[in-house]
Amino acid sequence: MVGLFLNGPAYSGIRARGIPIALDNRSARGDAGIVTEVNGKPKAVVLLSGGVDSATVAAMAKSTGFAVYALSCDYGQRHRLELEASKKVAASIGVLEHVTVQVGLNGFGGSALTEKSIAVPAYRGKSDEIPITYVPARNTVFLSIALSWAETLGAFDIFFGANAIDYSGYPDCRPAFVEAFERLANLATADGVEGRGQYRVHAPLISMTKPQIIQKAVDLGVDLAITHSCYNPSGDKSCGLCDSCVLRRQGFEGAGLKDPTCYT
Q1: Which of 63, 105, 143, 193 has the least C-beta neighbours within 10 A?
Q2: Is residue 12 part of a domain?
Q3: CA–CA distance, 238 with 264 (Å, rounded to integer)
Q4: pTM, rounded to two decimals
Q5: Per the domain annotation, does 24 fall within a domain?
Q6: Whole-number Å distance between alpha carbons of 104 and 84
Q7: Is residue 98 assigned to a domain?
Q8: Does residue 201 contact residue 46 with C-beta atoms inside 8 Å?
Q9: pLDDT per residue over 16-27, tens digit each?
Q10: How big, in percent rounded to 5, are the helix, strand and coil portions of the chain?
């Protein structure tokens, strides 16, 4: 059975830069309408996996003046370490709230990341073939959940770390997908169709190389040592062979920096 469960603390006691924020419940809606800002900053939901790209995007959103609400998805992935990394990244960046949603995509399988009987392949270089590490419709599912939370919060901006340059060839990391989902967001929500706001889906890394992303993260002060990229870790060590590991290593090398990851 595929389950959808929400795990996360209530909004009481949230702090941003040491300032208490009083919210009675998860809804930003009330008699006065939608509350779209926190201390003058527009709200944004950021998908946070715990990897380099999503950590960089979260830092970019915060640095450009958004009040960041981070969303992680436990979809039954074999690389569970990224969920722990997402908690560390959220705390390090200082988001307003970090929520983890359980989405049992491993109940469907069909990917090396959700089905243990399928081996994670070694990096195959540039290819037009979609790899077995692709999780069917994963970003569509994640963005849909982000959109639901955003509408509840009164946030009209959603960020995620899609990249179409140094990536594994996933169809849901391409500009056409991002544009299509943004159109959907404005057609599928009450706030969109009733004109209370315009949803924007931001993919600021979409045209950046991995070395450029690494350098951007460093410039923003992201602690890359606490991020996790590996699809097939052994204990707390990364394999160094999968697409994600190789792209990460190439990114650090291209940026002229040392990768803090511990590899087997």
Answers
A1: 193
A2: yes
A3: 6
A4: 0.88
A5: yes
A6: 18
A7: yes
A8: no
A9: 222 223 333 344
A10: 35, 20, 50
